[in-house]
Amino acid sequence: MLKTLIFGFLLGIVGTVAAAYYVPVVDQYRESSLISVAPNGGNTESFRINIPTDRIMIGAPMQAEPLPPGLRWPSQELFDGVRVELFKVRNTHETVIGVASRMVADSDQIEDSVEWVLHLPARGTFYVTMPAQPTDGVSRVGSLRAGTREFRPMQGALSERWVPNTEDEGPDAPDGHIELATSFVGTFSDDVTETALTEGAL
Amino acid sequence: MIKYVAGLLSGILLGVFAAATLLYFNPLASRNPLSPLSVSNNEILSVGYSAVPTDSIVYTNNGESRVEPHPDKVRELWEAPIRRSEVLVTVVTDSRNNPAGIGIKFSSDSEKSRIINGEALVDSAWHIHLVERGSLFVEQTENYWNFLRKIVVPAYWSSANHWKGVWNGNMTVGPGALGTAAVTGGTGEFAGLESEAVEAVSASAYSVAQGPVSMEGRLTIDVTGNVELTATDVTER
Known about the structure:
The structure holds two protein chains of two kinds. Chain A contains two helices and ten strands; from the N terminus they run H-E-E-E-E-E-E-E-E-E-E-H. Chain A has helices at residues 2-22, 190-199, and strands spanning 35-37, 43-51, 55-59, 82-90, 96-105, 113-120, 124-131, 139-147, 154-164, 176-186. A ten-stranded antiparallel sheet of chain A has the order 1-2-10-9-8-7-6-5-4-3, with no helix packed on it. Chain B is α+β, with helices and mostly antiparallel strands. Helix content of chain B is 18%, strand content 41%. Chain B has helices at 2-24, 145-157, 231-236, and strands at residues 44-50, 58-60, 85-93, 99-109, 121-130, 134-143, 162-170, 172-174, 181-188, 194-207, 211-222. In chain B, strand 5 (121-130) and strand 6 form a beta hairpin. The longest helix of chain B has 23 residues, at 2-24. The interface between A and B is large, with 71 and 69 residues.
C-alpha cells in the first residue's frame, strides 16, 4: 500500500512536470500567410483595412463624433498636430489577422510623416515610416524600419493606398478600404540565420 | 484491489500538488534582476505612463478578460487570430510626469511561455511619438510571472478580492541578451537610433474585478550618441 502511494506520488510529480514542460500554455490561432514571390526577388503580401468597419479608434483633436464613442483625446495644445488611428487588419481573404496603428505627426520641429505599426500576433510586428506626401498623388511608400520574429530579417517597403468602394453592395458595404502592400526581402547573413533558427523562424 | 487504486490516486494527487507547489514557489523563477540600464552611464530617456486602463485614451482586448475595454463602446479584439492580444493607447509623460507624447502598446501572449521555467511571456511592441521630437519603436518580450505571483494571485486569495502594497519589477526579459528591449528610432531626433530599453512597472493596488487600480509603467531608453537630451531628461539623470 505504501509502495503504491509512493509510486503514485512520483507519477504525479513526473506527470505534472512533463505537462508543464511539453503542453503549450499559449497556442496562437494562425491563418495561412498569403504571400507571393516577386519576379525580381523577395516577396509581396497585401493587407486591407475596411473603412469604417475595421477602424477601432480615431485620435485627433476637436472631433464632433469621437471614435470610439466616449473617447477623450488629451486637451493639451501639445497634441494638436498628432493624429492616431487604430485598425483591425485583414488578409486578402478578408479574414482579420492583426491590428495596426497609423500615426500622423504634423510639426514645425520635425519632418511630417506617416507611420504604421502592424501587429500580427502569430507572426510578429513591423514598423514603417513614410513621407506625409503621396508619391504619385494616390499612394504613399515607406521603408521598413524594424521587424520582430518573422519580420526581423526583412528589409523592404510598404505602400499605402485608399481604394474607394465602387460596387453597390448594400447599406452595410464599406466606403472603401486601405490597401497595404509589403515588398520585403530577407537579408542573408550568418547572424540573421542563427537568430532565425533560434527563434524557430526557419 | 480498491485499496491499491485509492492509494495510487491519492499518491498522484499528492504528487501533482507537490509539483504545482514547487513550480509556484520556485525560487529560481522569482528573480527580478537589476536592469542593466539602471547601472549604465549612457544617456537615458525616461518615458512614463499609467497602466490603469481607465486612465488610457483607449484600451481594448477580447472583451472576455478580467480587465474591461475602455471606453465602453470600443471595438473588441474578438476574432480568433487577435483574441489573445490587447492594445493600449495612452499619453506618455517625461520624467517630471509632464505629457510628452502618445504611446501605443500592442501585446500578445507568447507561445514561448513555459510554466516550468517561471515564464508567463508576452510579446509586446510600443509605437511612441514624442511631440516635436520624433518617434520610436520598442520591441520586447515581457515576463509577467512575478506580477501574477505577487499581485494577481494574492488578489484572488484575498477575501476582499483586492491587493494593496508596493511592487516594483522589471517586465522586460528580451530580446536583448541582458534582458533588454530593442529600440529603433523612426523620425525626428530618433531617426537612425538603434539601442536598448527596459520597461518597469510600479504597482500599488489591484482588483480582481477591475484589474490594475494603481499602477504605473516606465520605459527607460538608452539614447547614447543619437539624441540631444532635453533639460528634463538631463534633470532625470
